Target: Methyltransferase
Amino acid sequence: MSNPDWYRTFFTELPNEFWRRAATPEWTVADVDFIVSRLGLAPGSRILDAPCGSGRHSLLLAARGHRVTGVDISPEAVTHARAAAATAGLDVDFTVGDMRDVPRTGAFDTALCLGNSFGYLDPAGTAQFVSALAGAVRPGGGLVIDFGATAESILPGFTGERDVMRTGDIEVETRTEYDLAESRLLSRYTFRRGDQVLETTAVHHIYTSGQLTGFLRAGGFTVTGRHASPDGAPYELGSPRLVLLARR
Model:
């Protein structure tokens, strides 16, 4: 039985460093360009990035003149993000915390949930997260969710094959399986760097595109767009990624 709170301990230095290397600057620029243009964000906009990971989106948004608050449960990731902000001379408010514990000030112009994080929580937790985002964002403010575990993306042609990826001296082997009883994707990772080996499991709850709409509607958001990538391509059955736009 997989740990429902797996994300509280998963994001240590080795997995975080792997993803820091794997996510290219070009990916980050494309994401930020899409967010800013689609939501019409003016410089100085107040942006909530939750969870923010090691801060790649937060840092670029701050470099473009936005006021950014990043929240993440991984102390290692937040420490890395703070150091990167200090090196770049950027003022970003990075905080360690659960994604549901974001500032409910109603003052943010937009909230971001990127990096496939939306499926970390079960349905009850997801509803709590959406409620927290609604409390953080001002009326008329925006929301962007980047989700790769939508049912329409995962299930067509799912095989659960083994995959091996490398970034420099880090190798990760991934074995995936689908939990039919709980509608969850279980990704079993083995990270290796020299003599260091880490075996750990990530869990993503699978939601249909319609279920996502239901979560957001219940939280007070209206979906305004579904895209397959930052180039604006429409989301379709089998698209590997859903970039969903909404307004409060």
